[in-house]
Amino acid sequence: MAEIHSQTGFLEAQGAPLYYEIAGQGDPLLLIHAGIADSRMWDEQFPAFARHYRTIRYDVRGYGQSPFPTGSFANHEDPVALLTSLGIEKAHVVGISLGGKIALDFALAHPEMVTSLVLVATSVSGAQSSELVRQFFAEEEAALERGDVEGATELSLRMWVDGPRRTSAQVNPLVRKLVHDMLSPVIAVSLPESADEIALQPSALTRLDEIHVPTLLMVGDHDLPDKLTLTRQLADQIIGAQQVIIPGVAHMVNMEQPEEFTRIVLRFLSEL
To answer: Residue ranges of the AB hydrolase-1 domain (predicted)?
Structure first.
């Protein structure tokens, strides 16, 4: 099989550099990572997708090699700047967790630029967190205030990688290590006081009926109950949305089941 050659670069957008990588030919496909990772979480999918699509991945603000801007910015506007800079008018968009939230907001703010959506274990702007999630964030913040970055990282791994129904021993240690290595350098990095993150208004939760592109929803059956409930809600409210539940995995679906994830996404895209 031919080797896939990629190109990396930085785009100046919203007042700060945005790191990205692009490879392949064909219809554009944009990958947006989760909030406990960076664009390296797509390492298994990136070359596989690039054999069929012009595939782009990037580091969201505050992750990997993309610093926060010092002024106002909106996460859902970075895909606009990135695609436009590459001469791309429209793309398939795949997002996981925070990346799903950004993808959904992007699709609502710029529907003319989205061909289809794949939302995995997605967050949704405007949705309220459960007591379990609020307790997790409180414990994580307490650990960071004590200067215990490793402890805060481990809390995130237990919550989002292991999930509430498994122990760490039941999870692939290589997946845990990669997420640890992506998360630990940025978990203590907070939004600068000079920066102002702009949310989508009105929020996506109140506008799901405005999504009119083919949409695939995916979630692991070992994920948080919140994510399973939210995925069902999206399946009910996004017209024509397909839903797939992946057995035996929690939040990081594409990392725990890379071949199955890639197969499902490629099949969905090929049937459009």
So the answer is: 28-258
